[in-house]
Amino acid sequence: MGKQLPGGPEGAPAATATGWVSLYYAGITAGRFVTGFITFKVSNRHLIRAGQLTALAGAALLVLPLPPAFSLTGFMIVGLGLAPIYPCMLHETPERFGKRHAQTIMGYQMAVAYTGSTLMPPLLGFLASSLGMGLFPFYIAGSAAPMLLLTERLNVYLKRGRSGKQQHTEFTVN
C-alpha cells in the first residue's frame, strides 16, 4: 500500500512527506539568496557547475542507505544545488550565444523549463506508483547527471570555437 520514502519509514504520513519536501524548497530559497550575493565574485559557469555537482551530491545522500537525517539533508542539498542553475543559465545566454540571438534562446530556455516543470512531476508520479518512491533519488540523479554532462560539453564546444579560427562570440543558430 504505502511506498517507501528514501530513508524514511514505510508509508510515511503526509505531514512527514510535506516536511521533507519543504526542506527541498528551503534549499532552493537559501541557494537563490546566497547565489545573488556571490554572482559578483563567481562566474555563472562556475555557479552552474557547482550547482549541478551539489544536486548530485544531495541525490547521493538520498540513494545511500543512511539514517533518515541524511536523507533530510539530501533533500535540502538537492534544492541548494538546483537554486543557481536556471538563473545563471539565463544570465549566461548572451555570453554563450551572442546578444543577437539571446532573446530567442532565452525564450527556448523558458519554454523548455516550463515544459519540464509541467511534465517531470507527473512522470515521477507515474513511475513511483509502479516502482515505489525509492526511485526518487535515481530520478534526481538521472536528471542532474545528463544536465551536467551536456552543459560541460557545451562549455568545451564554445571554448574550442573561441580559441580556434573563429574569434567571435556569436553562436550560429540555424
Description:
- It is a single chain.
- The chain is mainly alpha-helical and 174 residues long.
- The chain is 77% helix and 0% strand.
- The chain is globular, with a radius of gyration of 18 Å.
- The termini are far apart.
- Residues 1-10 have low confidence and may be disordered.
Could you say which overall geometry the principal axes of the C-alpha atoms support? globular
Counted by DSSP, the helix tally is 6
Would you count the extended β strands for me?
A: 0
What structural class should be given to the helix and strand makeup? mainly alpha
Mean pLDDT: 84
Give the C-alpha Rg.
18 Å
Percent strand equals under 5%
Helix percent reads over 70%
SSE topology string? HHHHHH
Largest sheet: none
What is the first-to-last residue Cα distance? 51 Å
What is the subunit arrangement here?
Answer: single chain
Give the low-pLDDT segments.
Answer: 1-10
Concise structural overview:
The chain is mostly helical and 174 residues long. Helix content is 77%, strand content 0%.
Q: Strands, helices and their partners?
A:
Blueprint: H1 14-38, H2 44-63, H3 68-82, H4 85-97, H5 99-131, H6 136-163
Tags for this model:
174 residues, mainly alpha, 77% helix
